[in-house]
Amino acid sequence: MHTFKRQTYSGQVVEFIKRCILDGELAPGEQVKEVILSERLGISRAPIREALQILTQDGLITSEPQKGKYIRKMTRQEIENEYEIGGILEGAGVAAALPLMNHVDIARLSGMIEHMARLAPRVGGLYEFTEVDDAFHSALLAHCANRRLVEMARSACTNISKFLFYNHWNVLFTPQEFVDRHRDIFEAVQTRNPAKVEESLREHYRESGRRMAQFGS
């Protein structure tokens, strides 16, 4: 049984449910029952109800009148749309940052690609690329002056569909495909051509969306 600090019950329940989703214990479309969570966690239903409301606002849970609350399901089209938006946002942000990138920035990105390449033969899935993947996309946007655009682009990298289907994301591409896809982005950045950079990132996200969409409803 999990132990919770009294003053932060609802926040900890939110994190507990999120972990269950990431671990595949709660799948899209599965009902989330207050009474079962209450018994499992050994707390009253009030903070659980509050946590479910927070997750509903975040888009991870849907509420059906007279039926209950469920882990959100997404259609194939919704998943593809979400990734397409991500590519548009990040592409625009990186294109705006491009004129301010110097040789140090390029060298840093190159180093990340080489790090990915060294990891590829040794890893069993994409989980082990998570840290360098996040660092790579953050570095691409580092010089974008429009911080709101950066915030939206980074949020798109951790979109709802990627969260809901995280177990599938781990095997969405082979490790070598993962490296090659990021190398394509890096090579586009090296051209210093904003249009090529935007198209590279849009295609990067579109292909992710196409593959992830197979897990939609």
What does the secondary structure layout of this molecule look like, with pairings?
Layout: H1 9-22, E1 31-32, H2 34-41, H3 45-57, E2 61-64, E3 68-71, H4 76-97, H5 103-119, H6 130-140, H7 147-157, H8 160-164, H9 166-169, H10 175-191, H11 194-212
Describe the protein.
The protein has 217 residues and is mainly alpha-helical. It has two domains: 9-71, Orthogonal Bundle (Arc Repressor Mutant, subunit A), CATH 1.10.10; 76-214, Up-down Bundle (Four Helix Bundle (Hemerythrin (Met), subunit A)), CATH 1.20.120.530. It is built from eleven helices and three strands. The chain has helices at 9-22, 34-41, 45-57, 76-97, 103-119, 130-140, 147-157, 160-164, 166-169, 175-191, 194-212, and strands at 31-32, 61-64, 68-71. A three-stranded antiparallel sheet has the order 1-3-2. A hairpin with a 3-residue loop joins strand 2 (61-64) and strand 3. It is elongated. The protein starts with 8 loop residues before the first helix and ends in a 5-residue tail after the last helix. The mean pLDDT is 90.
- CATH fold-level name of the largest domain: Four Helix Bundle (Hemerythrin (Met), subunit A)
DSSP helical segment count: 11
CATH homologous superfamily heading of the largest domain: GntR ligand-binding domain-like
Q: Into which percentage range does the β-strand content fall?
A: under 5%
User: Spans of 5+ residues with little confidence (pLDDT < 50)?
Assistant: none
Q: How many strands in all?
A: 3
Strand order of the largest sheet: 1-3-2
Kindly report the average pLDDT value. Answer: 90
Radius of gyration: 20 Å
Largest sheet: 3 strands, antiparallel
Instruction: Give the CA-CA distance, first to last residue.
Output: 33 Å
Helix fraction by DSSP (H/I, runs of at least 4): 55-70%
Structural class: mainly alpha
The ordered string of helix (H) and strand (E) elements is: HEHHEEHHHHHHHH
CATH architecture level-2 label of the largest domain: Up-down Bundle
